[in-house]
Write a structure and sequence with these properties.
Layout: H1 3-22, E1 56-65, E2 70-73, E3 78-83, E4 90-91, E5 96-100, H2 103-134, H3 140-195, H4 207-244, H5 247-268, H6 273-306, E6 308-310, E7 315-320, E8 327-328, E9 333-338, E10 343-347, E11 363-368, E12 371-383, E13 389-391, E14 394-396, E15 399-403, E16 415-421
Antiparallel strand pairs: 1-10, 1-16, 2-9, 3-5, 3-8, 4-7, 5-6, 7-9, 10-15, 11-12, 11-16, 12-15, 13-14
Helix pairs in contact: 2-6, 3-4, 3-5
Length: about 425
């Protein structure tokens, strides 16, 4: 090779090196293939932030609520008294949605509270009795009082028995008087019958005998009348004596003596094991009754609470399914709502060719059509496990992007573009 040809070769090499040096420029952002728009109004937003790593992956998509649409219902049945929301309302967790007619339920709470108070009182009394038996000690004052009560009861019994005995004697005496009066009446009746015997009419013919017979007959009439009246008096006295005889006085006095004796024994003798066991059983039963009453009260209170339907989470009311005054059943939807406080951006056309450069945690910028001049910061949350379609000859996979913006009214269904800073 001559010198001229040698210089020509070196010159060509030099030119190639200069061209190669000029070609080392920054790599332009690449975008997943997106079908061209057919109208100017459908133009997609463009990236507004330079790539951080030299490669930016563009993908279209839409805003999706993290949680699905939620149907909210009562756990109890009843008449819908009040509806506090309407479609489009934004509610916070715990806000009142609707109320059932709870008049009967409130009455049930009042009754349950009364039963709890009564059960508490019964338990207190049973516990006091048990404590008294367990802590028993002889009480000299109580013993003296019991002895005095017994002596008084015995004296009352003795007086009652004396009274009953006197009353019995009075009855006996009155009975004897009745018997005597009856005999006197019988004698007077015999004398009357003798005086007025028809066989003696002949005596009226004799002046001397006539006077005697008339005197006899007058005496017989008077004696018979007296005997009848005397019998009536005797019978009346007997009835009064019977009325004054009251055996209940002695019986009541005997019962008082027995009661006083028992009180004295109780004051002098310690409680038996059976008495303590019975008192312990009474306490246990009272405790169980109180627990049951408290459970009933809690159930009644829960029923009143169940009559108020509150929002289980924050969100927006999508629809109202019933009207005020309607009867609703447990589990029947009252409203449907959507939690719009937790949103994600789901891509719809990210090519499988770009998946290798996407991973969880990568920063993302999202621009929505509704807010073309606002950039929403986000990050890759995860990549869908299954392709959702094809773009050209490549499958597309959804990339789920966490977004957050308190300044913009972002709603599920809004569309836009995501710029993922590729690795």
């Amino acid at each position: 090779m001559n010198t001229r040809n040698l210089f020509a070769v070196f010159g060509l090499i030099f030119v190639l090196l200069i061209v190669a040096a000029c070609g080392e420029q920054p790599v332009e952002a690449t975008a997943t293939a997106v079908p061209a728009s057919t109208s100017e109004s459908e133009a997609e937003p463009t990236a507004t932030r330079p790539s951080q790593s030299g490669v930016t992956i563009l993908a279209d998509g839409s805003v999706v609520a993290v949680k699905p649409v939620l149907a909210v219902s009562f756990t109890a049945s009843g008449r819908l008294l009040e509806l506090a929301v309407q479609p489009g309302d934004v509610v916070a967790a715990g806000d009142l949605i609707a109320t059932l007619d709870d008049e009967t339920l409130v009455d049930a709470v009042t009754n349950a509270e009364f039963q709890v108070a009564q059960s508490e009182l019964n338990l207190e009394q049973a516990q006091i009795e048990l404590d008294r038996l367990l802590a028993w000690e002889p009480d000299e004052t109580a013993v003296a009082l019991a002895e005095a009560n017994l002596a008084a009861a015995q004296a009352t019994l003795k007086n009652a028995q004396t009274s009953d005995a006197a009353a019995g004697n009075s009855v006996t005496s009155a009975r004897v008087s009745v018997d005597q009066a009856e005999r006197q009446l019988a004698d007077a009746q015999d004398a009357y019958n003798t005086a007025f015997d028809p066989g003696r009419e002949w005596e009226l013919g004799d002046p001397f005998r006539k006077q005697l017979l008339e005197n006899e007959r007058e005496a017989a009439v008077r004696n018979l009348q007296f005997a009848e009246e005397n019998l009536q008096v005797a019978q009346a006295n007997y009835s009064l004596s019977l009325a004054g005889l009251n055996n209940d006085t002695a019986l009541n006095a005997e019962a008082s003596v027995v009661s006083a004796q028992q009180a004295l024994e109780q004051a002098q003798e310690p409680p038996t094991a059976e008495q303590i066991e019975t008192a312990q059983l009474n306490v246990a039963q009272a405790e169980l009754s109180l627990q049951q009453s408290q459970i009933s009260l809690e159930q009644a209170q829960e029923a009143v609470q169940d009559a108020q339907l509150v929002a289980p989470t924050a969100g927006t009311i999508l629809s109202v399914e019933v009207a005020e005054g309607a009867m609703v059943g447990a589990g029947s939807p009252i409203i449907t709502m959507l939690d719009t406080t937790q949103l994600e951006f789901h891509t719809s056309n990210l090519s499988e060719r770009d998946l290798a450069r996407v991973e969880a945690g990568q920063p993302v910028q999202v621009t929505l059509k509704a807010y073309p001049n606002d950039v929403i910061a986000g990050s890759v949350a995860r990549i869908g496990t299954q392709a959702t379609g094809m773009v050209g000859d490549a499958a597309v996979f959804p990339v789920i992007i966490s977004i957050s913006s308190d300044d913009l009214d972002i709603r599920p269904g809004m569309t836009g573009r995501a710029e993922i800073a590729g690795e």
